[in-house]
Each structure stands twice: as structure tokens, then as C-alpha cells.
Amino acid sequence: MENQNNILPGFDSEKFLSVFRKNLLLLLLIFFVINTVGYLFFIRWKKPVYESVSELRLDIKSEASELGIATFAENQNFNIISGEIELIRSKLFFNKVLDEVDLSMSYFTKGKVLDDEKYKASPFKADIKLKNDNFMDRNIHVDLIDSEKYRLKYAYKEEKYETIHAYGEKIENEHFELIISLTSHYTPSIDEEHYFRLNSREALILNLESNLEVVPSNLNAKIIRISFRDHNAVKARDLVHAIDTLYMVYSDLEKKQANKQKIEWLAEELDRIEEVMEENEAYTEAFTIENRTLNLDLDLMKTIAAINEIDSQRFDLNRRINQIRLVMVDLEAGKPLSISMARSPALGPEIKDELMRYEEIRSDLDRIALTYNEITYSYQQKEQELQTIYASVKEKLGFALTNLQEQNRELEKQKNRLEASFKELPAKGTEFKKAQRFYKIYEELFTALMQTKAQFEITDAGTTPDFKILAPASLPKQPISPNKILVHGASLVVSLMLCFIFLGLVYLFNNKITHLSELEKVTHTPILGMIPSANQNNGQGVIIDQQPKSAISEAFRSLRTNLEFMLPGPGPKVLSTTSTISGEGKSFVTINLAAAHAMSGKRTVILDLDMRKSKIQQLLTGDISQHKGMSTILSGKDNFEDCIQNTSIEGLQFIPAGPNPPNPSELLVNGKMDDMLTKLKKDYQMIFLDTPPVGLVTDGQLAMKKADLCLYVFKAHYSKIAFTKTLNRLAKMNDTSKLAIIFNGQDRKERNSYGYGYYEEPKSRWGFLGRIFRR
Prior knowledge:
Helix content is 51%, strand content 17%. The strands form four sheets. An eight-stranded mixed beta sheet has the order 14-21-20-15-19-16-18-17, sandwiched between helices. Strands 3-2-10-5-6-7 form a six-stranded antiparallel beta sheet, with no helix packed on it. A four-stranded antiparallel beta sheet has the order 11-12-1-13. Strand 8 and strand 9 form a beta hairpin. The protein is flat.
């Protein structure tokens, strides 16, 4: 029973090949689309990028170091590479490069997809002077009509301008002054659209910053690599050549200029400091002569100690004054007092007690306000008590504040007397010490600047930059981007991955039964046979008499033979056919299998028990009107003898379903069905019951109990694997020997499909490749 419960078995190679065959065109389409998109977007519609490369060797020779003097140049040797790279990538150096290479005007040829820059190869030249800066970095189109005139086109503020002019004619308007002239690159047969652009310096610098790469190639050898990428190979080569050429001159001049400016500034600063030191020395000499001493510390120590003591006392008084003021502010604002503030040492014991009492009354008033109205006696009495204690506290705080302020003023007077008594001497001492401190600072600074000036002078005289161009700017022959091999390879890999993912998802989400072996894995019910798919089954019923030599006819004859083995013995036989849902070919199998028995000489009748959605009459006669049939027979309105209809096949008759009844299930169990089958067995050897799908209604299960053998129909690529649950449940509930499977619609291209010599396989449009996929 393991396979019966495993509705999703493991990997099925036959099902995978079937899914592959059915989706082959879609897989080829995915493969084609991905590779086409990769080619168009990353090769065809992407402008090629060229890279020009140059290498410089930085050799710093310092003769000053041979004297045993440590110079700044030696200390900077460790960072020489990064310093030079920052110099090359500086905006100041970029401006020098743009002054050397004129990129202010760019000329382009407009293509269907990509535009091509005509650097030094433009068929015309534009001499423009802007009056409106909004035309900076804006495209102005020029159509070369012939060798004498051209068409000028541009847009401004959603308004388009288009005029025709002669070459050399001066065009002047409110936007610009322009003269267009032809160059030697002009050819009369040229049929292209052109435009030019006046580039701003900011846009050019941004382009250099984005596309210029300066990296160390060899740190030990002090070699840097300069590369620039652009869509024009000549432009990239010219910019790299200008960069490494200008760097040779610019770096030397900048370094020497920087050292000279530093030396000049140091000289001016040393002169200024020397003048200040001379003034300080003159002051010291005069002070010594006037006061006859240089040690004023002893006289000042006592005065300073007394003043410090008074300052400490005043600080403590001010702190207590501020605490009292904070308490008074909180009292006036009606804010609750914190415990730490109410118990501050700045307050006296009496005031502290009053404050604590004030807080208790205020808290009691807040509690009373929660339960009593403000006009109640209790609330007003407590509020009056609060006002009384508030006035008392405020008065005592005022007295304490006045007392502390008076003490503070007295201390201030004492401090003023001390300062006045020693006014002259401390002031002179302070000024003298200040002068001494500044003199010492200036003396140290003077010595340091003298050393720095000497080092810069040695560096300027003894350091010689020796830069060499190891590899001049190259003219790229092939673009570095796009990489066609990489793009094609990536497109191939992505397309194959997407095809595999798509195929895997279709396989995983394909819950249909595709071939017979897949059905055998999920059920133990015997398989009577399989019927190949028939393109002729387009609304037709009996095929076995119309195409007797076809593979589908042979299949039904084979099913007829297999039934003889499953239903041995004499006597009439009752067979029922059902399926899980409609559309699986249940009625088609019934009428053709019945026709096969009738053509073998057995009297056969078909009972259409699918009274909800009958098809037997329509398939056999083409008539859809049903006035009487099984529903009227089982309800007692008609006799079955009056409802039997003949077919075009001798020996095959049928009883239609009749009008759609409201209670088909009750009609099958009222006993009349058994009586009718008993009478039919006297006249017919084979009785076929076309029952409703058991997966939708219970009618089919009731009819199955009256049959000698129940045929369960599955259809390839239509029936779901989960439908086998219904079959397995029926096999478990009933005798398995009374149940058999017919696999309908098997693709004749499947490897294990049914086939006979009478059937000639149609020629495939895919030839040998198609035969391989079918196998």
C-alpha cells in the first residue's frame, strides 16, 4: 500500500521527457529571447568603451640625506605614491589638463540606437558664443543639407527652433552667436544627423573624475598606472598623454612653489616674533630697575590666600541664596517640592519643618479634590490652611534670603579692602609673570620655526624629482567593454538556467498523469489496457466502425479480448464505466467498447445512467432531445422496451438518460433498476452502464455495485494524480477483482505507447531530431 499512498512519487524520467517535448518550442523561445536580449542590450545597443594606459616611475633623489640631515622629503617617501596619486586626481590638475586638451566642444553623429562622438573627425566646426548659460551642456542639432547650406535645430523652454543657413554665416539671436563651417572630414555623400554640445568645465571635470583611474602598479618600484576610459579611443589616448606629460612639469613646479611659499612665510613670521621678544626683554629690564626685585611671590601669597578664603565663603553664601530662591520660585508656581530641596542645608530647621508641613497640606488638598467639590467646606478649609502656611513659609524664606545677602555684601567689602591694599604690587607681579611666560613661548616658537625653515631650505635645494614615463599613452585598438565572449557566455548560461528552471517548475507543478507507467506506480488496481489519443474524436462517437484499421480501433479490440479473460464463463455480463470527473472520455470508451462487442456478434445494450449530464445519445445519433429514457423508466413512467433505440451498428442498442431528474440517486436504489437488468440479461449478452463520475456524485458508486466489472477511465495529460485517491478508496471499499483501469488518450509519441502495424506514424516536421525526442 506504499505506492497507493504516495501520490507524488519520485523523479519520473518519462514524465520529464514528456514535459520537455510538449514545451520544446517554449524552451527554444526562452533560449532565443534571452540570447537576443543579451546581444541587443549588452553588445548591439551598448557603446564600446576604450581604455588608454600609461605608466610612470617616480624616483625621488635626495642629496641632502647624504649630509646626514633628516629632511621632510625622506619622511614623505613612504607616502610618495599616494601623494602623487592625489595630485593627479586633484581638480586643480584637471583644470590644467583641460587647458591643454580642448574638450569644450563635443561633436556627435546621431545613430538609430547609439550616438558616435566625432572627436577630431567632425565634418563641421561650430564657433559659438553663448548669451544664455542655459545652453551649456545642451545639444544643438545640425543637418548638413549639402556643401552650401545646413539646417539648425534646437529647443528651448518647450519651443522648437529650426532654420536654414549658409556655411560661414553668422547667426545671432538672444541665445547665442554661432558660425558653422565645414572641415576636411566633410564628404558630400554623407547622410547622417549631427549635433554638437558646448561642455561646461564642471561637466568635463566630473567626466575626468569618473573615468580616470590612477593606481599604484608596483609599490616597491614607485610605479603608478594611469588609465582613462572613453567611448572614443583617440580621445582616451590624448587625455592620458596630456596627463602624464603635464604631470612631469606641473608636479616639479608645484613642489618648488609650495616650498618657496613656506620659506617666505617662515621668514616673515620669524621677523615678527623677534620684534616681540625684543620688546619683552626691554620691559623686563625696566621692571627690575623700578622695583629693585624680581620675586613678588612672597608678598602676594598671603593676599591671595585671604582673597581665596573670602571667595569660598561667598561661593557658599551664593549657593544657599540660589537654593532659597529656587524654593521660593517653586512655591509661587505651586509646584510640588522635592524632598531633597525641602531638606536643603541652606534652610533653617524651622523653615524645613514649615516646608514639610506645606507639602503635607498640599498633598491632602489634592486627595480631597479627587472626592470633593471646590465649594465644599472640607476643601475650602484645607485650602485656607494651605494659604496660611504658604504665607508663613514665604515670609521666613524672605528673612533668610535678606540675611544671607547682607552677609555676602559684607564679605565683598572685605575682599575689596584686601585688593585695594595690594593693588599696585600684585598688578605689577601679574603683568611681569605674563610677560615672562609669553617670552618663553615666543622663544620656543622662534627656535622651532628656525629649524623648520632650515629643513625646507635644505629640501628645496637638495631634492630633485626624477619622473620617467615607462609606457606612453596607448591607442586602444579593441574596446574593453562590452566583452562579447563574456556576454554570449553569460547569456547562454542564463538562458539554459532559465530553461532548466522553467522545465523543472512545469515538471513539479504538472499534477497530471502523463503515461501508463506513472499510473502503475500509484495504484495496484489492474490496468485493462490503454487507448491512444485520437484526433478524430472531435464530437464523434463510434470510431471503431469508421476506421477499423486504426490504432485506436485495435486498442478497443484488445480491450474486448482482455475483458473475456477478466469475465470468464457463460451468461450475460454487466459492465459499468466511470471516471473521477467529466472530460476523461468515459462515454467515448463506453460506446466504442460496446461497439467492439456488438461487431463481434454479441447483442449489446448501453444504459446511460449519467442522468445529470448525458452524452450517449448525442455521440451515437447526434440528437440532443431526450423525452424518455432511464429517468422515466426508473420513475415508472415508461417501459424500457419503449425507450430502447437502435444505432448504425448491428447488434448495438442503447437507452438514453432521459429528462434530467431531481433525484438520480434515489432512482437507482428503488428496485426498478434491478428488475430492468434482470429482463435485459434475457435479451442481451453485454450490458454497459455509463455512470456519472464518482468524484462528483454518488450515483456512479450505486451503479458500480450492480456491475460484474467496473471500468475506471483515466485520461493522459488530463486526469490528475490525486484522482487515484478516489480509485484506491473504491478498491479498498469494494472487491478489487471487480475494478479495472482503462488509460485513455495515451500520446502515441510516448516511448511505451500502444501501436500496431496498421498505424502509420505521421512524418514529423522535425525530422531526425523529432524522432529522437519521441523516443
